[in-house]
Amino acid sequence: MRLSAPSARAVDLRVEPVDNVLDHMERSLHVELDRDTVVRKRRSVGARTDRLTWIRIERRGLDNIGVQGWNGTECAALLEGIAQPTWLGCMVWRDADGPVMWRADETDLLPSAPIGTAILSEDPGLQDAWWQAFNASLDALAAQDTQRVATPDTVTITQELVTEAVRTISPAEGFDTAVERWVPAHADLNWANMTAPTFSLFDWEDWGNAPRGLDSASLWGSSLAVPALADRVRHERRHDFESRDGKLMTLFVCSKILGPGAHPQDPRLEPARRMAEQVIAELQAG
Which top CATH class is 19-109? Predict the structure, then answer.
């Protein structure tokens, strides 16, 4: 069940004026933002504060806040064995001008800079120690217990969603799309949400149970414009990719790349198409 409210208008915070939102948050939390450090994303804005912390502010329509809420960063503070910024507190308020909620989460500063944009076009040159810390955190995450359900792109992931996505690129009933194992996942794993040279994983709003391999497949999809990097992701997370669920998640990610909104010059199209054909053949072979 969702909160009953009119739908909020679509907003991209990369271009929407947000000064009044930042001002309100500063007054309420008695903090001052360093406006020179503001990072704007589609649905969030973040900045460094004068008390040497980071505040991330997210906007969501009331119709897009489900039963589990949108306190992912707060809930992720309870996870063990994962390199992430320490969560310090939050504030939540309703927008006076529409069916919208704002949430500001304050955390420690990141130990290093974010690696890049969600989709990379150049190899970031990550060291072996980074990959070891990355693997340790993803393995620790998959071993946790949670009642949350992952919401990649703010959409709750379900068996029906997986089947629908896979069937868009493999319509023939040549294999079963039933997920065998659901494990906790970050659900927004891309190169904009990790740091280097010191590894840390942040932006936990969408985390929750998902089919095994969702995170690995998502990062692979974000790496396809750099073939060597995509291959490294598959090598490091091979136990995910070799599993049946990991193959389904590979197709799930490929469906997003190859879908109706695909740009004809996206360098990820051809490698995604080749991988989809390979994985479909493997699943059909049993």
Answer: alpha beta
